[in-house]
Amino acid sequence: MNDLVKFESFIRVPEIFFDMIGITRYGEPRDTWKARLKQAFFWSSYANTIFCLIIEHIYFIKAAGNFTNFLELTALAPCIGFTALSIVKIMTIKANEAKLNGILDRLNELFPRSHVDQERYRTYQYNLESQVVMKSFSILYMILIWIFNLLPLVSMLVNYLSNGVLEKELPYFMWYWYDWHREGYYEITFFHQNWGAFDSAVYNLSTDLLFCAIILLICLQFDILAYRLRNAEGDYGELELCVKLHQAVIELCNQLEGIFSPSILVNFVGSSVIICLVGFQATSDISSFDLFKFILFLISSLVQVFLLCYYGNKLIEASSQIAYCAFEGNWNTADVRYQKSLLFVMTRAGKWQKLTAMKFSVVSLASYSAILSTSFSYFTLLKTIYDPSQK
Question: Largest alpha-carbon pair distance within the chain?
């Protein structure tokens, strides 16, 4: 027999990353010295990330004003977009901590605890999916950010071994009011950029993982509801409990929509541009080092948006089964009262639960296709107007 699955295992991976950036874990006391230190660390990291975004923008504006190489501008733009998106996402979490804890509290109350229930409702399969997806995506994102962060050191070493000259390089294009090539200044600047980039990656990653974990737990509740409706056997008391569960899960979906809808809109719009620019860089005449990191950036961006759309689609599918499962039960042998009440349940279940990007787009696999289509349109436009002979 499988070991009991704990509720905390579904959110363990995002909480590991929340620990790294100073956000209090679910259920952790908030009035201790440890919690206050984590708060101070979070706001210092957040301030550093904001500072990175500002000096990236200054560099971009100065470079654009001086008509710098077009490839340099299109290399900087997706990094700016990535950082800006991470700031929006983590503030979504920070501004809605109490609401998110309320959602997790409710899901924790509804979570199946016994071996029998966990076997019946496929809790083990849900947990396995969450662990595989979250760990794989985390590894991909960490490889991405540390390749971006440390590749300049590899490039410096290769140049030194081949030319005998040590040319200092930084991971990202940012404006500085001092000469960062000087001894001591370079090391501080390199650390500053690595810290900001790592925080940006973790902001994006932790928010997306928590979003996916909550949707997976809600889908588990829809599966529980579907099973109970299918096996209600005309029991009116059981039907009442099913209605209460359905109302609770619908309310959780509405709360999730209210929290994440603005950041999803920013994510969809930003990702369309980022995927376009990263794809443009990967297909341009750049060095092997840059080609490798931008291909990895492109893969990570595609996977990130796919995860959001996949789990949004999963929520639609999970909620759409309720009416069918209610119809599959033995309602034909039940009394008229039960049949009429079940009809109301089926009518309400006909309105599927979905998440949207501020009502502009439904979070689904169809949205993913639309984002890729938009990105490809931007990409072909850039390719059309770009002339490699002009600097």
Answer: 89
**Closest alpha carbon to 342 in 249, 254, 253, 228:** 228
CB 231 within 8 A of CB 241: no
Distance of CA 180 to CAs 48, 52, 55, 189, Å? 17, 15, 14, 7
Asked whether 348 and 229 are in contact (CB, 8 A), the reply is no
pLDDT of 388 reads 56
The CA–CA distances, whole Å, from 70 to 242, 277, 390 equal: 59, 11, 8
Q: Which residues of the chain fall below pLDDT 70?
A: 1-2, 65-69, 386-391
Going 283 to 134 to 271 to 91, the CA torsion angle's sign is: negative
Which residue is listed with tokens 């969450």? Answer: 130
- What pLDDT was estimated at residue 81? 86
Q: The tokens of 271 are what?
A: 């990702």
Residues in the chain: 391
Could you tell me which residues are beta bridge partners of residue 91?
none
Structure tokens at 140: 């991909």
The vertex-78 CA angle with 19 and 45, nearest 5°, equals 25
CB-CB contact of 202 with 17 (8 Å): yes
Q: Which residue blocks in the chain are alpha helix, DSSP H?
A: 8-21, 33-65, 70-95, 97-110, 115-120, 123-163, 185-230, 236-282, 288-328, 336-349, 365-385
Structure tokens at 333: 């042998």
Closest CA to 225 of 251, 246, 255: 246
**Nearest-angstrom CA–CA distance, 144 and 160:** 25
pLDDT score, position 66: 60
pLDDT for the residue 387: 56
